[in-house]
Amino acid sequence: MVMNGTDQRPGGAHHEAGQAPDPAGPAPEGFATRVRSALAWRYGSQVVAQIITWGSTLLVVRLLDPSDYGLFAMSQVVLAALAFLNGWGFANSLIQQESIGKRDIGQAFALLLALNFGLAILQILIAPYAALYYGEPLIETMLYIQALLFLTTPFIALPSALLSRELSFRTQAFANIIASVFGALTALGMAWYGFGVWALVWAPIIAFAVRAVGVTVAAWPLTMPVFNFKGAGAMVSYGGAMTLCQMLWIVQSQSDIFIAGRLFDPYELGLYAEALFLTLIVTGRFLPPLNEVAFPAYSELHKAGRSLGPYFLRSVRTVAILTGPIYIGLALTAPEAIATLFGSKWMPMAPIVAGLALIMPLRSLEIICAPATNATGRPRIDVYTSLVGAVVFTTGFLIGVDYGALGLVQAWWVAAPLLLVFTLTLTLPIAGVGAWEWFGSIWPAIVGCAAMAVAVLALKTVLPDWPAPFRLAAMAATGALTYSAVIWFGWRKVVEESWAMIRQRPASAPMPGDRIQTTAG
User: Fold this and answer.
1) Please, which of 33, 106, 278, 354 could form a disulfide with 334 given CB 3.0 to 4.6 Å?
2) If you write DSSP's letter for every residue of 476-492 in order, what string do you get?
3) CB proximity list for 90: less than 8 A, separation 6 or greater
């Protein structure tokens, strides 16, 4: 990290006065290797952490009732409504800046401490009114305890930003895995011993605390907080824009639960909330790590005067190829998947899961746009897209809630495509990518998913009435083989380049600065 005002980043860009960098030239020295390493550690840790979390979740969900998840979802709306002010944007401003010093770090630390201490107090004050709004007295006590989450945030956000600035994700990976273990054990143990919804309340608190200790030790020593904010204008401006985006994102992502919380009973709300959790696993668990790596990577390319286009298109193509079959496959096998993983008491959730899964590939492609515009110093675009998202989603949920959980699903069908189109309209010119290039990058996933759907639906018409796990296995195997065959025989170069990147062969796996084939076929 830069502490004395000079650029000490590995591969940092230095240009002679009056000489403009060549946007089409090579990426900064060692950039491809560091990005691959960062992605490997970030995704590797995410996979391990999610295996731990999912294993625990599948056990816990059988021990708890849908009403427990409904109560937890109610409390999460309040928590999320305050979390947009937690100051992560101020920490992330340290990644985007060309150079930082001890004073910059100290000021960011002070902002994080002040904001999150204040949020903890505010949540305690709001708790009685939230319980009154939902008509559930237990919500008050839950919110009192969940205020502890804000006290861990400064010791996660600041160290994580400093480590991410250097594309250093190895130590963060270990901290995330250990935190997942502690959180999973807490949830499982408390659910087993009959603590009900409290298992869901305490598990993230323990996980956050463990993660805070891990990343703080990894980034040690931290600079002391500086409560004199003179000269912090750039940080406050960038962080303020990110805070506004976060607020609008919260409105967009939590308005369904907030609106439905007063009209649905805890059981119905629990079914919808858990269906949403299941279908957001990929976008909520595996896309944030990609964005965490993409943001500092895009920032470094932008500082070096290089084009973001090739890397952006590669991210789009990878996300489409990976998320498309997961979500379409889940939509096709929802009844079998719910019966196998959750048990018979959760079967009313199956049509909700199927409906949400159909639209989530578009949601995935929209989420990965923000790092490109933020890294180039245009956070206003993220503000605009977040504002539009808040409006279209909230409007849709207000209309759809009268038709129950499936009405909320149909609101997703309308809002998600509209938001994606608006986001791409603003993002593609910044990334230096044309609309046809973007469509070409997702074309293999479209063709593969269509072929997979035909094969699975055909199998479903002739499949015997086997137990759910066997039907799920047969349908999943058929879908996976069909999709893999289409991608392999139709776009073998895509597969080979992805495999070469995993094996770290730079010549075969073009990184930012290289040209990649994105047209269909």
Assistant:
1) 354
2) HHHHHHHHHHHHHHH-H
3) 108, 111, 112, 235, 236, 238, 239, 242
What is the tens place of the pLDDT at every residue in 408-427? 999 999 999 999 999 999 99
What pLDDT digit, counting tens, does each position of 214-241 carry? 888 887 777 787 777 676 566 566 666 6
User: In which region does residue 274 sit, left (phi positive, over 0), alpha (psi from -120 to 50) or beta (all else)?
Assistant: alpha
Copy the structure tokens of residue 7: 């650029």
- Given a contact cutoff of 8 angstroms between Cβ atoms, the answer to whether 170 and 41 are in contact is yes
CA nearest 287: which of 320, 255, 309? 320
What does pTM read for this prediction? 0.65
* DSSP-derived 3-state class of residue 4: strand
Q: How far, in Å, CA of 140 to CA of 119, rounded?
A: 16
Closest CA to 422 of 273, 252, 282: 252
Boundaries of every domain in the chain = 27-231, 257-515
Residue 363 pLDDT > 70, yes or no?
A: yes
Question: What is the b/e burial string over 169-189, where b = at least 16 CB atoms within 10 angstroms of the residue's CB?
Answer: bbbbbbbbbbbbbbbbebbbe
